C-alpha cells in the first residue's frame, strides 16, 4: 500500500512540476548561429529601398493599411512611404535638438482608424535640455493636429530627501538666473493608443540624467479632448524597497516596460527589482492622490522571474527589460535579467498562475506577442539578434544572422493584421518577413 501511495505521490509531483502542455521555448544561443526550424521557418519576403533622401532610419511603424510605413530619421524628418516600391507619400520636418548620439523622432503608435499617429515635439528645439511632449500627427500629411502640455514631475520623497515638484515661479526665475536647469520637468518616453483609440497611455521620465533612472510615471489621456484621466508614479513594493534610495529602488531603470491589457482592462508593468505588477484604474487613482512616493501603492505583484544561473546568489532581482501579454490575455511573457549574459525570457500563465518556461541565456530585449502562438523578440543591444518563436510548438521560426543578412535588433514593426514583420537591414533597406506560403492573419 505504501509503495502505491509513493508512486501516486511521485506521479502527482511530476505532473505538478512539469510545464503546461502546448507551451515551450527553443534554445537560443548568445554566441553561436541559431537555426530556425526548417519546416516552419519564416523568410525574407521582399526588400524595399525607401525614398527618404538618403537619411538614416531611427524608427519605423506600419500604418494600419498594412501597405505603407511611417519612418522617423536621425535628421529629424518624418516620412510616409509605400511598402510596394518604397516611393514617397509625404515627408515633414520634425525639428528638434538631439539629446543623445543616436536620436530622431520616435513613431510611437498609429491610431486604430489610421488617421493619426503618436510622436513628440520639443518645447525649445534649440536647447538640448528642453523637454519633449506628446503630439498627434495626421497620417495624411504628417502635420501636428494636437499638442499635449509638457508634464512636470510629481516626485516627492522624505526618506531620500528629494522633491522634484514645481517649486513656483520665484524659484524657477532664481534657478534660471543662477544658470541652473529646471529639475522639475519630465520628458516623454513612450506612448500607445488604448481602448480602441479613445485613450492614450503615455510614459514619462525625468529629463535629467540620474533622476530619470527612478522618476518614471504613467499618464492616461482622453484622445479627443486631451484631458488627463489618470496617472501613476513608479514606486517599489514595500518588501523589496530600500527607502534610503529614491522610490525604494537600488537598481536603475534603464527601461520601464509596461502594457495595457485589453482583455483585463489593466496595466501590467515590470520594474528594475524584477517585480511584475498589475494596476487597475482604482490603484492608479490611489497612487496619484498620495504625495509621498514611499506611501504610494505599487499594485499587486503578479509574477517574479527567478534566474536559473548558478553564478547569481540573488535570484529574484532580475531587472525586467520588456513585458507583453498574448491577445487572449492569458499568457504573460517577459525578458528579465542583469547585463553580462544573464538575461532570459519567461512565460507565465496569468490564469493558472504557473510558470510555463524559462529560456536559455541570451540578450533578449523588446517582446511583442501579436498572436496567441507567436512571440517577436528584439535584441537588447545594438549587437543583439532578432528572433521569432512559436511558443506553443516551442520552435524557432526566424533568427537573424549577420553573415547572411543583417537585421537591426530593435528597430522593427509588426503588421497590424497579417503574419508579417517589417525590419531594418543595412544601408537603410527594409525587409518584410513572412512565413512560407499564402499570407495569413495573426
UniProtKB/TrEMBL annotation:
InterPro entries: Quino_amine_DH_bsu, WD40/YVTN_repeat-like_dom_sf
SUPFAM superfamilies: YVTN repeat-like/Quinoprotein amine dehydrogenase
Protein name per the record: WD40 repeat domain-containing protein
Native species: Leptospira perdikensis
